[in-house]
């Protein structure tokens, strides 16, 4: 569990990432909870009250709310919640998350009426699809585009050349980390999501990856159904805890 969480953190890198024992204090200007939370995976090397004070101080220094990510049911979930921290129910993307895994050899999909490419840099269409027509901020570029050859910006186009789907694929050690899956409404329920996942898996296999890992909010039932249909299973869950109001 801890190994997978470390891989996911490496695949979604925060500009500020400091170690506190086995904890990681992370900040990314508020862009996504996973990049702006302390990841609690083991002994922080100091008593728990001091560790939580360090989380608050780090968050204040970076202008973000204090937040801790804990694997659900882990000793650190028990400890941090026992210190009075509560579920971050105000987080719109979902305060409880499932971590799914698969063996990439079994991830396949049927062909469809689209063309899928796996470039190692995002083009304007990839950004526009994911950002609803917007442009990436410097923080978003840092998190999403490491520009080191580890990431493919998978993009599907229809017969007219319009961008209709995307996913971000990052290889960390022997794992593929998937994120930012998006399919335009007009192209949904036609197998494109599964085709994007399969294209990402095929690309990752050429780079030595054998396994896949991804994070999906528990309330995102549509995405969870898609991943279940392409062979992904739940490994564990995590949740975001924040100080009481």
UniProtKB/TrEMBL annotation:
Which PROSITE patterns does UniProt cross-reference here?
GNAT (PS51186)
Domain N-acetyltransferase, by residue range, is 116-245
- Quote one Gene Ontology molecular function term: acyltransferase activity, transferring groups other than amino-acyl groups
Name the domain of life this protein comes from. Bacteria
Sorted keywords for this record are: Acyltransferase, Transferase
> Which InterPro entries does the UniProt record give?
Acyl_CoA_acyltransferase, Bact_Acetyltransf, GNAT_dom, Rv0428c-like_C
Protein's recorded name: GNAT family N-acetyltransferase
